[in-house]
Amino acid sequence: MEIYHIKDLSFAFPMKEHAALSAINLTIRSGEFVTICGKSGCGKSTLLRQLKTVLTPHGKRDGAVYFNGKSLEEVDSRTQAAEIGFVLQSPDNQIVTDKVWHELAFGLESLGYDQPTIRLRVAEMASFFGIQTWFHKSVTELSGGQKQLLNLASIMAMHPSVLILDEPTSQLDPIAATDFLATVSKINRELGTTVIMTEHRLEEVLPISDRLIVLDQGGVIADDTPPKVGEILLSLNHPMFASMPSPMQIYAGAGVHNHLTCPVTVKEGRQWLNAYLEDKTVARMAETQRRDFVSPGPLAIQFKDVWFRHDHNGPDTIKDLSFEVREGQFYCIVGGNGTGKTTTLSLINGILKPYRGKVLIHGNNLNKMNAKNLFVNRLGVLPQNPATLFVKKTLELDLYEMLSDNQLTKEEKKRKVEAVVQFAELEPLLTMHPYDLSGGEQQRAALAKVLLLEPKILLLDEPTKGLDGFFKEKLGYFLRKLQAEGVTIVMVSHDIEFCAKYGEECAMFFDGTIITSNEAHTFFSGNSFYTTAANRMARHIWSEAVTIEGVIDLCQKSM
Hints:
Blueprint (H helix, E strand, L loop, with lengths): L1 E11 L8 E9 L3 E6 L5 H6 L10 E8 L2 E2 L5 H7 E4 L12 H11 L4 H14 L15 H13 L5 E5 L7 H18 L2 E5 L12 E6 L2 E6 L1 H11 L9 H9 L11 H11 L22 E10 L9 E9 L3 E6 L5 H8 L7 E6 L2 E2 L5 H5 L3 E4 L12 H7 L8 H15 L14 H13 L5 E5 L7 H16 L3 E5 L3 H7 L2 E6 L2 E7 H6 L7 H6 L9 H10 L2
Parallel strand pairs: 3-8, 3-9, 6-7, 7-8, 13-18, 13-19, 16-17, 17-18
Antiparallel strand pairs: 1-2, 1-4, 4-5, 9-10, 11-12, 11-14, 14-15, 19-20
């Protein structure tokens, strides 16, 4: 039985020459788990929003969407609210009440259910999702992972027949993301709920997906099981293959496979690797696997016994934090949601002030530096929410706004803007309002704005959030180039693969302080969960292999 039938669907935003969606034809059967992926701006979120009329953006639409055999326009609002659940990217954008228990009950109250039914369903969902221990908490006390789980539970309390999720793990740490996806899989498996999801981080999603649909420039270029789609993208030499799980990329890069099946999960990758290396002499791990970096220079950032709390009588968020970042270093900070990572960036850029200890920037006490000394050609900050950087009606005006106080000629400003636009692939987006861009497009645009300031220290809070594998690679090489030019980079990220491949030093945050730090390669080769899929797949043979490229190289050297 089909739950959605999409027929010749095309959609264009107002005053846009090119359609965001073009001639989409899809059938989604009841109970399926469907994942949709594609490059940033390919139309993923736009497609999902066509599946619930209240979320459909304004624009010109052709074709039709059928829900349970009926045109979606003919399905009344109450039925859509109850039957079609939708989880947004940002956990905070969907929470509407102040208490956990009330958030669980809110949707049911809005649909007019009686109190006994509401109490029963709320109790059932709290038990199913393991919410009992924080049932009476204020939502402001919850971590990002708990908020997203609460959003999911609130929707599932209405017993929808289809669950639509738009990059729901983009703001979650790796462990919280894994837990969240395990819950979604349990809903699909045990309740039979149809799941339609867009996602950039495919390592954990593809093993639980029945189908993978790839969009490119608003059209479907692949629609099959995850292994088949991987083979299609590889044969097309498509940039989206860079987003496929590490075992698939290692399989492709290793070369001849003797008809071995393409692996998707880490478990399958291990089995494939064992079979691939059978009758081969396993290559030894060489010191050349480690990346060589230029010797670090003087101190760029220094924390000395820093303590911080948001409220005078509240708990400490940052506890006795001391660490150093040298000029030209690429320093990555990882850790769970709510451990103090973003707060640390705010202490570096002066938004927050410690109540004890010192923060030094190039040897100067931050408390004694004015805004001009701190930000003019010194600090550049990419916040976790890129939308906060946009102040103009079009992206082009927003980019020029960054140079408004700069003593440059019109031609010089034009050259700088054109260069950053070309790097971030923003040409088709210049006339759009920044708030109309997709999450990934906003991330690229915000990064472009920050880079126009040519900062000596670049602070990045989740810079790969919403970015596809192709642009992540491009961003990584560009950051390496900046680093080679002497720019200091401090990055907070949940993207373990990106940190391992491009970072120089990595630090683990826990309970308001750094508990360990090391050279990136060494750091990730010693962890169980905070490590790469490539390491989990190959460490029983090569314990220090961390990156996809490193494992492929060792496979090819094994004869």
